[in-house]
Write a structure and sequence with these properties.
388 residues, single chain, binds succinic acid, Beta-Lactamase, Hypothetical protein af1432, binds fe (iii) ion, binds ligand C2E, 2 domains
């Protein structure tokens, strides 16, 4: 067989990377992978991806080989930058143009954008060349920004990005835009599903879904901080969890009004019908492709399972119950106790706390008790920010 030239190998790797990318269902993972591949092919030391969220750019992923090789953590903050021409990323987002800067410290004064060196200062890093590319969808709208930092020689010197790298970067920017497009479509569809549950049952599900989503994230964050979950996984999980938890009762749309809106206690028979909302929800979300789909389904199906096996619909116990469903169960019951329902009045804080403590003895994951307790004030704040 003919020996492969470096060029062949390069091409082969680009094609293989493309094949991997189209098989990733999860958008955040996909964006991160795009950053990894784009950095590899342009030999960039560092890079970031931003997404457009309304009028700001939201920072999603950042990589930096130098900092990682020093054994240092990437100073990770979930920051946003305004979409204005004052920053490089903002300039690219607002104009849709590629920006290839050889040395950020030699940006002429008359340029609309300037370099913000606060990241360098915190990270003790020296940014030199920066290639910033817009992620443009098929309606010619900028949906994000891919930024590659410090092209390197084989001797690991930082040099400018060659102009042919702009083309390669553009290929990844196109893949990134497609991924984001899909993410936004999914998000829109999900928010419509949540809206449907609100229309069906305005009294019980309106702000309830928002609160349950936020409570679940607060409890998860506390758990993740105590369990050395990486910032990256935590940020990825919490976003997915918020939406998945918001859909926990989506199956209630399949329950008849006479039961769903009954102004009193349910009879044995009615309760059996009501309990079907878990399976109905799981059916609606049955198409498990991405991390999100899987989590949403796990939560819809299992949020009424109890730690001691006394719940429904499958009497799972302990760690058989998916972790995120265990978290959502706490969030859901906490909210039900604090809220007015067709069948009950809201309870005062002390009574809620007392009841929750009791439920931690058999219903909830005992490991999560400390996180519920430490977040109690935060949960109350969330409650007041989404009033009935
Ligand atoms: P939901 O109102 O969102 O309540 C969610 C869960 O919070 C309940 O799940 C239950 O675990 C907990 N919870 C609610 N109120 C109380 C309470 O007063 N004490 C205690 N210890 N826990 C409470 P559950 O019981 O499986 O009910 C699922 C859903 O079924 C409820 O969602 C609600 O929509 C409906 N439901 C349950 N019981 C009744 C009822 O007596 N009348 C009516 N109309 N609906 C009910
Ligand atoms: C920018 O593009 O100017 C913001 C990001 C950075 O400072 O590296
Ligand atoms: C997880 O994040 O999947 C869970 C760990 C656990 O089950 O406690
Ligand atoms: Fe439920
Ligand atoms: Fe609920």
């Amino acid at each position: 067989m003919k020996r492969k030239s470096p060029d062949d190998e390069f091409l082969e790797r680009i094609l293989a990377a493309g094949a991997i990318l189209v098989n990733i269902g999860d958008i955040d993972i996909l964006l991160e992978q795009i950053l990894t591949e784009a950095r590899f092919f342009t030999n960039a030391d560092a890079g970031s991806v931003y997404t457009v969220e309304g009028s700001v750019l939201s920072f999603c992923h950042s990589q930096n080989e130098t900092i990682v090789s020093r054994g240092q953590r990437i100073p990770y903050t979930r920051f946003t930058i305004p979409i204005s021409t004052a920053s490089m990323a903002g300039y690219v987002a607002s104009t849709g143009k590629i920006l290839n800067i050889d040395n950020v410290r030699e940006i002429p004064d008359e340029a609309p954008y300037s370099f913000d060196d606060s990241y360098d200062k915190i990270a003790k890093y020296r940014t030199k060349s920066v290639l910033t590319l817009p992620l443009i969808n098929n309606r010619q709208t900028v949906v994000g920004v891919l930024q590659l930092i410090n092209a390197r020689t084989h001797q690991r010197e930082f040099v400018p990005f060659q102009s042919k790298m702009e083309l390669l970067g553009k290929y990844y920017a196109t893949l990134g835009a497609l991924a984001l497009e899909r993410a936004m479509m999914t998000r829109t569809l999900l928010m419509r599903m949540v809206k449907m549950t609100e229309f069906r049952d305005p009294k019980e599900t309106g702000q309830h879904v928002n609160r349950v989503g936020s409570y679940a994230v607060a409890i998860y964050d506390s758990w993740a901080n105590a369990n050395n979950v990486s910032d990256k996984d935590q940020i990825l999980n919490r976003d997915i969890l918020r939406m998945a938890a918001m859909l926990h009762d989506v199956g209630k749309t399949g329950i008849s009004d006479s039961i769903l809106k009954k102004p009193g206690m349910l009879s044995e028979k009615e309760r059996t019908v009501m309990e079907k909302h878990c399976e109905i929800g799981a059916q609606v979300l049955h198409n498990c492709e991405s991390t999100f789909d899987e989590m949403a389904r796990d939560i819809a199906l299992n949020h009424h399972e109890n730690w001691d096996g006394s719940g429904y619909p499958n009497q799972l116990a302990g760690e058989e119950i998916p972790f995120m469903a265990r978290i959502t169960s706490i969030a859901d019951v906490f909210d039900a106790l604090c809220s007015r329902r067709a069948y009950k009045s809201p309870w005062p804080d002390e009574k809620v706390l007392e009841e929750m403590e009791k439920l931690f003895l058999n219903k909830f994951d005992p490991e999560l008790r400390v996180h519920f307790i430490s977040q109690f004030e935060a949960l109350k704040e969330i409650r007041s920010s989404y009033p009935e």
